[in-house]
Design a protein that fits this description.
- This protein is of the alpha/beta class and about 240 residues long.
- It is about 35% helix and about 15% strand.
- It contains eight helices and five strands.
- The chain has a five-stranded parallel β-sheet, with helices on both faces.
- Strand 3, helix 6 and strand 4 form a beta-alpha-beta unit.
- Helix 3 runs antiparallel to helix 4.
């Protein structure tokens, strides 16, 4: 939770939603300035965020900002008391402070997402459902704060952060402004993507019988202002 150290309350607020990036070792740290930043995280931010921690930047500009780990990232990623042999082999000779260690962990965790939705379905759950439920609870937290103007709450994110923003702004009228960066596409075109980025993706199964992905974002209209950065050079 980032709260401006100057200005008059109540402040506008932003729910900052981190990306997927096939990078599961860290979540919220992708968006917030942290002391002793891991070299792997520094390289990731340089490539995808221009070395800027935008949650911290927004706080400096007068916004209360809440950033947390989504389910399967950061502190909520898979952890083992007894790592499986495959993971032990990948991590052999590596130390947690090395970028190679984080890379190996991300590769291993990435291999687990393909079965994640199936395993969740066995218990009647859904990955996107869990994530958006949690994001709405994060809005509850923001709305509970005296420092926050309840009528001036926004959400934004890059890639899967934008994907989450689409669903959050379409589902929850408390979001009055939304920024979707790098993820706004018709679902039909996803079948033709040259890579595997759509495999194992969190999704609202059954919804697309009636709604395409951009339709979900439109559910917040006209009360939610929406800005989409389409990112013309983004393969997605």
């Amino acid at each position: 939770m980032l709260i401006p150290d100057r200005g008059k309350t109540p402040f506008p607020a932003v729910l900052a939603l981190h990306d997927h990036g096939a990078y599961f070792f860290f979540g919220k740290e992708k968006l917030v300035e942290v002391e002793s930043e891991h070299p792997s995280l520094t390289a990731f931010k340089k490539q995808y965020y221009g070395s800027r921690s935008y949650a911290s930047e927004l706080a400096r500009r007068g916004f209360v900002v809440l950033v947390t780990d989504a389910f399967f990232w950061g502190e909520r990623r898979i952890r083992y008391e007894h790592p499986p042999a495959a993971l032990q082999k990948m991590l052999a000779g590596l130390k947690p402070e090395q970028a190679e260690y984080v890379g190996a962990m991300n590769e291993f965790l990435g291999s687990k997402v393909f079965g994640l939705n199936t395993k969740l379905a066995f218990i009647g759950a859904n990955w996107l459902g869990i994530v958006i439920h949690d994001d709405r609870r994060r809005l509850d937290v923001l709305c509970s704060l005296d420092e926050v103007n309840k009528n001036r709450i926004g959400a934004l994110g890059l890639s899967v952060g934008g994907y989450r923003t689409t669903y959050l702004s379409g589902l929850d009228p408390r979001v009055r402004a939304a920024v979707v960066a790098g993820w706004m596409t018709a679902l039909g075109t996803m079948l033709d993507l040259p890579d595997n980025s759509s495999r194992g993706l969190m999704d609202a199964f059954g919804l697309h019988r009636n709604l395409d992905h951009p339709d979900v974002a439109s559910l917040g209209a006209p009360d939610c202002a929406l800005f989409v950065q389409q990112c013309g050079r983004d393969g997605l």
